[in-house]
Protein: Putative DNA-damage-inducible protein F
Organism: Gordonia crocea
Amino acid sequence: MTSAPADSESGPRRIGALAASALVVLIAPPLYLLLDLAVVGRLGARELAALGVGTLMLAILSTQLTFLAYGTTARSARRFGEGDRDGAVIEGVQATWIAVVVGLAIVAAGYAAAPAIMRALVPDAAVAAEGAGWLRIAVFGVPLILASMAGNGWMRGVQQTRAPVVNVVVGLGLAAVLCVVLVHGVGPFPRWGLPGSAWANLAGQSVTGLCFLGALWRECRATGVGWRPDRAVISAQLVMARDLIARSASFQVCFLSAAAVAARYSVAAVAAHQVVLQVWEFLSLLLDSLAIAAQALVGAALGAAAPARAREVARRVTVASVGLALVVAVVLGLGAGVLPRLFNTDAQVLDAIATPWWFLIAMLPIAGVVFALDGVLLGAGDAAFLRTATLGAALVAFLPLIWASHVFGWGLAGIWTGLLVFMLARLAAVYWRYRQGGWTGQIGAAH
């Protein structure tokens, strides 16, 4: 048992420490993916398009279980706030059991279905075949990707900041080196092309996952926490998982629909869409680092029955998130003529990138508020509201505009208008919930 965090441990310095740790952990995978896109992009537009769709499918197969990170953070933080560190670690053990069992099932299903999925998404047969080959290699890393999510969840809950950074940097540092040498055949290494990217991804994700499992084993050994599955804890986690999975699925359906529509325009359009989408994902996780700090601190504050402290954390994180979003928007605007060339040099792809690039810039200040308040509400255990709000925004705003773009030929401008309206709808929902104040009454809801 440990004492609950004091008020001083929820101030700007603690928010900064948690956000800095989360920042490295969150941006390392998309930063690696940006490197991967840049390396594979030198092979040609076909390989870049195949990698874009392949990585999108890997994300869909693996990130439907984001509750392993976000739900576990909320539940572990609540227990840590109550002074029960062992209980917070137990949450991590049980989340890891879910990660391994479900991850193995995803490997089997993803490997078998990869060719059919790619043919359904991409009309170009060559792009579909290369994307399926990439996915069939990379999918074997899913169990350890999910174990990493669970590890991040309980470590954030107990406010550990160093170990998650080390685990991620070691694994993805290895992947970055392998990506360059295996795709293009540097030195004594063979030139494997696009499959080299998949093998590099698998190696890096596996090392990171094993590092998180090792950290959990050491914590259990030191505290005496057992490894056996606990049906009661797993059942409680799955209640929150139900809402977070539905929320995550709505995101993936939207982005999958957008990719499918973009693919029906041209290879250049789908390549351009995926490049800007990956930049968006990278910047979203940059903002989410502050939201995760809010999640851990709000959960701990409500666990300690201190709603005033939770509201102060929410205010501070939102102000910081909007400020960061505005700075990034200015940088992207000033670099609009240069930055896209880091990912591709094909004239048609660069021309297509220009439209979604400016939509991305316009969305960033909105995202600053949305992501911060998402973190606050997740920390409060308000997952049911977030599920309903996100599903509503997807069904009313995003999906109708995506498919209207296909019917009426609006191109990438139509697709990204749908994303912009989706963000505005989410902004209205989470701001209303925050102002309404019901989330502060979620004390004890995590148990």
In short: Residues 112 and 136 are 8 Å apart (CA to CA). DSSP finds 14 helices and no strands in the chain.
